[in-house]
Design brief:
Layout: H1 2-18, H2 25-30, H3 40-61, H4 69-89, H5 94-115, E1 120-122, E2 128-130, H6 133-145, H7 158-168, H8 174-186, H9 189-193, E3 196-199, E4 202-205, H10 209-234, H11 237-268
Antiparallel strand pairs: 1-2, 3-4
Length: about 270
C-alpha cells in the first residue's frame, strides 16, 4: 500500500504543476481561472489530506505490532477527505464547483469563529502568519455573493460525503461500513468487541483479517476513483498508465495476502 500511497500523491502533484491545456475537461471545469485561484484549490487541499492519511495507514499496517481501531480511524480519515474532494468535483460545470466551494468555506470559517479556532497560513513570500478570521469571513462572503448561483445549498455532513464517495467507488454497503469505521474511531463498545484478542493470556486490541481486507478494498478503490477522475480531467494518458501499474500491483499484493490467510484458515479446520 505504500507504493499506492506514494504513486497517488505523486500523480496529483504532477498534474498540478503540469498546467492546464485548452480543450481538456479540467480547463472547462476551471472556467478560465488559474488552479490556485479556483475552487480546485480546495479540492487539492482535501486530496493532500487524504494522501497524508493514506501514507500513515500504509506504514502503520507494516509495523511489527498488532493494531486495530487506529487502522480503522486512518481509513475513515482518508475516505472522509476524499469524500470532501469528490463532492466538489462531482459537478457539471465550473460555476457549480465554485458555488459549492464558496458555501463550504464560509460555513467552515463561521463555525471556526464560533468555536474560537485559530489558525495560520502561508503568505506569498513563504512566511507564516496568523489568519484574521474576521477578514477571512468577509472575503468568503464576497466570494459567495459573486457567484451566479444563489440558491440555498446545504453542506453535507461527513457521513454523507464519505458514503457518497464509497458508493461511487463500488462499495456495496457504504453506510454500514462507514458506521463501523466511525464506531472504531470513537471506541464504541459493540465495535470494539470485534477487535478484541488474547495474546499470552492478556486481552488486547487486534486486527481481524476480515477487517483489514475490508479497509484495504474500500480505501484503495476510493483512492482509485478520485485519482483516476483527476487523470481523466487532465486527459493525461501517461499518468493513467503509471497509476494503473501501481494500483494493480497493490491489488495483487492484497490478493496474495488474502489467499495466504484463506489457506491458513482452511488448514486449521478439523
Amino acid at each position: 500500500m505504500i507504493g499506492a500511497a506514494k504513486s497517488g500523491s505523486d500523480v496529483c502533484s504532477r498534474l498540478w504543476v503540469r498546467g492546464v491545456k485548452p480543450d481538456t475537461p479540467i480547463a472547462d471545469l476551471l472556467g478560465g481561472k488559474a488552479l490556485r485561484d479556483s475552487a480546485f484549490a480546495d479540492v487539492s487541499g482535501a486530496i493532500s489530506t487524504a494522501t497524508d492519511h493514506l501514507h500513515a495507514l500504509a506504514r502503520v499496517i507494516r509495523l511489527p505490532v498488532e493494531l486495530g481501531p487506529s487502522i480503522a480511524t486512518l481509513s475513515r480519515g482518508t475516505i472522509e477527505a476524499l469524500g470532501r474532494a469528490w463532492w466538489l468535483l462531482d459537478v457539471q460545470d465550473a460555476a457549480a464547483m465554485e458555488h459549492r466551494s464558496a458555501v463550504m468555506r464560509l460555513a467552515e470559517l463561521t463555525t471556526a469563529k464560533k468555536r474560537g479556532v485559530a489558525t495560520s497560513h502561508l503568505r506569498t513570500d513563504g512566511d507564516r502568519e496568523d489568519l484574521n478570521i474576521d477578514l477571512a469571513i468577509d472575503e468568503a462572503k464576497r466570494r459567495l455573493s459573486g457567484q451566479p448561483q444563489h440558491q440555498e445549498l446545504d453542506i453535507p455532513r461527513y457521513t454523507v460525503l464519505a458514503t457518497a464517495v464509497m458508493a461511487a467507488a463500488g462499495v456495496k454497503k457504504p453506510a454500514t461500513e462507514y458506521s463501523h469505521l466511525s464506531g472504531a474511531a470513537h471506541g464504541e463498545n459493540l465495535t470494539a468487541l470485534g477487535f478484541s484478542s488474547v495474546c499470552d493470556g492478556t486481552g488486547r486490541m487486534g486486527l481481524p483479517y476480515r477487517y483489514l481486507d475490508m479497509y484495504a478494498w474500500t480505501v484503495l478503490h476510493t483512492v482509485d476513483l478520485v485519482v483516476t477522475h483527476l487523470i481523466d480531467l487532465w486527459d493525461a494518458g501517461e499518468e493513467r498508465e503509471r497509476w494503473s501499474v501501481q494500483r494493480d500491483r497493490t491489488y495483487d499484493d492484497f490478493d496474495t495476502l488474502r489467499n495466504i490467510v484463506i489457506n491458513h484458515q482452511a488448514g486449521e479446520q478439523p
